[in-house]
């Protein structure tokens, strides 16, 4: 058998490698998606005081440390067994939306727009954010502005953009100032305008990607995500819902503490990333995906007027539970708009300025689970502590982990469609990378690992010998 | 009886002092700053950290300013390329010895080791990290002892014995195995002599002794009032 390796996969968060095995007929026989780092957060946090966990685990990732801070703080709230003050809950939600805006802007404008605007077959030397700045300076500026808005809102709230320490077990360190609120409100109209423009632009170029939409991981699988009691999208707090590819709700309103009844993790031999699956259906039949596309499939609606309008149009075009992973990009833009709308609602809530923002307590429960929707999907932090509050066991299930099986499946499907013969062509190679990119994976998070962002592809012959190799 | 007045030169400047003063006291009295870590006003000096080393004319080795008595006519240098090199080395060796991870430490931004590293220009460490596997004692109801962040300055040992009079803390073992231990090496929570006063926590220069429930960057400490109390009880500065 022949083998193709894409190593490293670029414009994603973390390190990955794709191996494509070719059969004797020169067609793709099977593919493997490997995540090539390990960091061991779950092990080395053993013994630490539990209230240090938000600070430690947020270091898993520099892209969305807020997600880990929130999930970890929620798990710690459960150990403290406190109900955090209302203002703290609103502030956590607010900073979460700010992070969605910056993270989705980064994924769409900085990482994926080169493929979408310049084309999958465009010159590799130019197919990056610099190429976008040259050809579409307006759009590039929009992307930078939108990400800046999100990052600046985080800075206003947390006093620092990356790895803030504002979110703590029991609530927040400090309340929000009226000046901070006004500053965020002032920036919102422009940010919303950018999100609307990006959506309009994406919709206008969508028809060019017919082949990609049809072949970018379209296998039927379940979707998972948090929804509120009414079934609307819930990013900070809600019950977990699984919906199958046909649109039927499989499980609904799973509380955080019951996640393990429904989600189990399998270890893969060829990757440091674990593969969670839906426990009742077993491995690997319990494949599901999370993230923007899954959330919009799982939820009944967004719950904000503009995002709901966009969602209706999206569903009209691609159905109730769209399958193509390519549509993650679309879903991400709808969510960016949703996050901005929600920020406005929260900032106009008078309770957001309340100064009581922290509940204090000791160890009141020996186990705590925190679940949120991170930009890339469902994030679970699960800790067990001893009576003194020392961590005795920790488990993190991150968004990209949930997507492990889905990404691997999408890679195989895309490779089967686009790869033929023993020679790698750049456009084909990039499409295989791009299907990974559509999920906006954060491999640093998935292995709780870190580093720069490369994917590599190897093409292997039936005997295992290396035929061709490319680093994108 | 009035103590005998002496005069010494510190960095070329003639400084008046009293017999029995250490070089550190004389220098501080003259407004000179010598970096210190294990020293705390009101506690017995032990010369453990070696950060306050100075050059004394006519003596071929460096001497700790905190324990060396000032002598009439002595000429002391507190700032030189050699001293900076040695002080940096001391900080670097402290950083590699245990697991000092500022970014996730509760004392980040309020740590004496960190500020010394910053003021001495320690931007990187030249030695391999030791990464020891060290326990965290969470058994006390209010406080935590994290050996990962301990620099063995023994301020906790001295403040507990000399100011509080409880003698909870001891130094166990030597060299790389050296540890601060509470009451015959029992978990702190079961130390019956501990009065829960928290003086050790407030005196600790790093995040090794901390209050429970504090998240990253939240732990600030104040030992000035402990020093004031010790001095009021008659201790030397």
Explained architecture:
The complex is a heterodimer of chains A (472) and B (237). Chain A is an alpha+beta fold and 472 residues long. Among the domains of chain A are: 42-82 and 364-397, no CATH class; 221-325, no CATH class. Chain A is 43% helix and 19% strand. Chain A has helices at residues 41-44, 53-57, 65-80, 86-118, 129-135, 137-158, 178-205, 210-215, 259-262, 292-298, 305-318, 328-347, 399-402, 404-418, 426-438, 443-446; strands at 2-8, 16-22, 28-35, 167-168, 171-172, 222-227, 239-243, 249-254, 263-266, 275-278, 288-289, 367-374, 377-385, 391-397, 455-461, 466-471. In chain A, the strands form five sheets. In chain A, strands 1, 2, 3, 15 and 16 form a five-stranded mixed beta sheet that branches. In chain A, strands 8-7-6-11 form a four-stranded mixed beta sheet. Chain A has a three-stranded antiparallel beta sheet with strand order 12-13-14. In chain A, α5 (129-135) packs across α6, α7 runs antiparallel to α12 (328-347) and α11 (305-318) runs antiparallel to α12 (328-347). Chain A is globular and about 65 Å long. Chain A starts with a strand and ends with a strand. With 237 residues, chain B is an alpha+beta fold. Chain B folds into two domains: 5-79, Ubiquitin-like (UB roll) (Roll), CATH 3.10.20; 104-221, Alpha-Beta Plaits, CATH 3.30.70.20. Helix content of chain B is 24%, strand content 16%. Chain B contains six helices and ten strands; from the N terminus they run ββαβββααββαββαβα. Chain B has helices at residues 23-29, 81-97, 112-119, 155-164, 199-203, 224-232; strands spanning 5-10, 13-18, 53-56, 63-64, 75-77, 136-137, 143-146, 169-172, 179-182, 209-211. In chain B, the strands form three sheets. Chain B has a five-stranded mixed beta sheet with strand order 2-1-5-3-4, sandwiched between helices. In chain B, β3 (53-56) and β4 form a beta hairpin. The longest helix of chain B is centred in the middle third of the chain and has 17 residues, at 81-97. Chain B is globular and about 50 Å long. The two termini of chain B are 19 Å apart. The A-B interface holds A 47-49, 51-52, 54-56, 59, 163, 165, 168-169, 173, 360, 362, 386, 388-390 and B 103-104, 106, 108, 135-136, 138-139, 144, 189, 212-218.
């Amino acid at each position: 058998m022949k083998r193709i390796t894409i190593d490293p996969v670029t414009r994603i968060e973390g390190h990955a490698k794709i191996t494509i095995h070719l059969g004797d007929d020169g067609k793709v026989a099977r593919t493997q998606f490997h995540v090539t780092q390990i960091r061991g957060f779950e092990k080395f946090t053993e013994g630490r005081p539990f209230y240090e966990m938000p600070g430690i685990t947020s270091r898993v990732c520099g892209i969305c440390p807020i997600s880990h801070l929130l999930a970890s703080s929620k798990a710690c709230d459960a150990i403290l067994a406190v109900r955090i003050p209302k203002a703290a809950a609103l502030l956590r939600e607010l900073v979460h939306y700010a992070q969605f805006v910056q993270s989705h802007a980064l994924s769409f404008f900085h990482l994926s727009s080169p493929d979408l605007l310049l084309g999958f077959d465009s010159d590799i030397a130019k197919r990056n954010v610099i190429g976008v700045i040259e050809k579409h300076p307006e759009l590039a500026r929009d992307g930078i502005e939108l990400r800046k808005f999100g990052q600046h809102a985080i800075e206003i709230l947390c006093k620092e953009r990356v790895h803030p320490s504002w979110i703590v077990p029991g609530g927040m360190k400090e309340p929000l100032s009226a000046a901070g609120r006004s500053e965020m409100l002032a920036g919102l109209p422009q940010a919303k305008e950018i999100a609307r423009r990006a959506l309009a632009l994406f919709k206008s170029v969508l028809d060019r990607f017919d082949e990609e939409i049809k072949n970018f991981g379209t296998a039927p699988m379940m979707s998972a995500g948090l929804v509120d009691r009414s079934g609307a999208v819930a990013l900070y707090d809600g019950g977990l819902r699984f919906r199958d590819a046909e649109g039927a709700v499989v499980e609904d309103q799973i509380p955080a503490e019951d996640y393990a009844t429904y989600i189990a993790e399998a270890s893969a031999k060829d990757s440091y990333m674990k593969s969670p699956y839906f426990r009742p259906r077993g491995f690997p039949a319990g494949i599901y995906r999370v993230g923007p596309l899954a959330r919009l499939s799982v939820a009944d609606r967004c719950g904000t007027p503009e995002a709901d309008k966009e969602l209706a149009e999206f569903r009209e075009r691609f159905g109730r539970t769209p399958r193509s992973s390519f549509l993650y990009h679309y879903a991400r833009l709808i969510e960016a708009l949703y996050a901005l709308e929600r920020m406005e609602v929260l900032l106009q809530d008078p309770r957001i300025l309340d100064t009581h923002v922290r509940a204090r307590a000791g160890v009141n429960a020996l186990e705590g689970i925190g679940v949120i929707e991170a930009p890339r999907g469902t994030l679970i932090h699960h800790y067990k502590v001893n009576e003194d509050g020392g961590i005795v066991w920790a488990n993190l299930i991150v968004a990209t982990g949930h997507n492990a099986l889905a990404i691997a499946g999408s890679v195989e499907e895309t490779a089967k469609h686009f790869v033929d013969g023993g020679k790698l062509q750049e456009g084909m190679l990039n499409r295989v990378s791009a299907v990974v990119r559509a999920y906006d994976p954060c491999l640093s998070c998935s292995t709780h690992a870190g580093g720069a962002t490369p994917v590599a592809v190897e093409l292997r012959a039936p005997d295992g010998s290396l035929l061709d190799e490319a680093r994108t | 009886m009035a103590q005998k007045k002496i005069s010494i030169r510190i960095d070329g400047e003639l400084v008046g002092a009293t017999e029995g003063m250490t070089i550190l006291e004389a220098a501080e009295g003259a407004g000179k700053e010598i970096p210190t870590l294990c020293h705390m006003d009101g506690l017995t000096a032990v010369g453990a950290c070696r950060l306050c080393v100075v050059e004394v004319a006519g003596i071929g080795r460096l001497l700790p300013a905190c324990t060396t008595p000032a002598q009439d006519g002595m000429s002391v240098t507190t700032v030189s390329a050699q001293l900076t090199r040695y002080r940096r080395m001391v900080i670097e060796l402290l950083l590699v010895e245990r697991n000092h991870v500022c970014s996730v430490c509760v004392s980040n931004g309020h740590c004496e080791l960190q500020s010394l590293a910053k003021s001495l220009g320690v931007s990187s460490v030249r030695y391999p990290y030791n990464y020891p596997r060290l326990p965290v004692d969470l058994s006390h109801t209010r406080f935590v002892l994290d050996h990962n962040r301990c620099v063995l300055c023994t301020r906790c040992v001295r403040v507990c014995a000399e100011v509080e009079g409880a003698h909870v803390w001891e130094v166990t073992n030597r060299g790389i195995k050296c540890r601060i231990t509470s009451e015959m090496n029992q978990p702190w929570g079961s130390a019956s002599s501990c009065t829960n006063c928290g003086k050790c926590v407030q005196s600790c220069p790093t995040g090794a002794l901390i209050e429970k429930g504090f998240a990253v960057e939240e732990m600030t400490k104040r030992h000035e009032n402990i020093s004031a109390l010790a001095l009021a009880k008659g201790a030397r500065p």
